[in-house]
């Protein structure tokens, strides 16, 4: 795994439209270069700050440093940053980038009450360097030269995995799922970012519908993408949805699901974990409320996932 400032996912960058972002990068990865790309930003007048190694800049050498500096003009919404050298994104070098603006038609305090980033990712049990080295042989990786499917999906850096399937007690640890605490009868803007290397991921919340209000930093208002049971995102895509917390009371819990669309994969892993789970927990700050720790027992929506590897139709 590769991390930034000891964090996975990496630090969130937040700015206002019109701000200048300055990021100092020191490459402490042994023996290889790196670079950072600011996904979705146009970089008008600052193309050399875009980040793809070998295209807009030389890689930052191991032990070297580089400062990114650019102004955000005419854009706002949900973006992200990630490594753009080799397969380092696959190894964990990424994070959210949020640009706030008075020009955003969706106003906090008017159209929604709280803002929450949900980084959806996928995970491999080998480093990208190991995978790429194997793919460059006649045998390939896992017996195939096709782009391999990941072993599992991730919610804000938390995965769901049965350690009996992989590794040993010394290398595999069972971890509690990611939790999102919410207050009843509020509206949460979930900024869903697909940082996966390969997986198309369906995001859903048991017994709660989702209203799409943003797609790739473009505001949306359409009945066609309101009241959805699931929202699918592919690599690099960002969607904001409104989650209304009107289905529970303090102490109630619901599963949040991130399910990879296996139709997009060239083959299926027998020991893969297709779905990762997170907890939506209703809370209250009142004196009579006692915090709970129990896990949900809710069921998934009955409608099946789409069989096609395709995006949400949000143009109408």
TrEMBL record:
> Any keyword Disulfide bond?
yes
Gene3D superfamilies, alphabetically? Cupredoxins - blue copper proteins
Q: Say yes or no: keyword Glycoprotein present.
A: yes
SUPFAM superfamilies xrefs: Cupredoxins
Q: Which domain of life is it from?
A: Eukaryota
Q: Which Pfam families match?
A: Cu-oxidase (PF00394), Cu-oxidase_3 (PF07732)
Q: Name a GO molecular-function annotation.
A: copper ion binding
Q: Where is the Plastocyanin-like domain?
A: 2-101, 117-282
Listed A to Z, the keywords are: Copper, Disulfide bond, Glycoprotein
Q: Which family does it belong to?
A: Belongs to the multicopper oxidase family.
What is this protein's record name? Multicopper oxidase
Natural source organism: Rhizoctonia solani
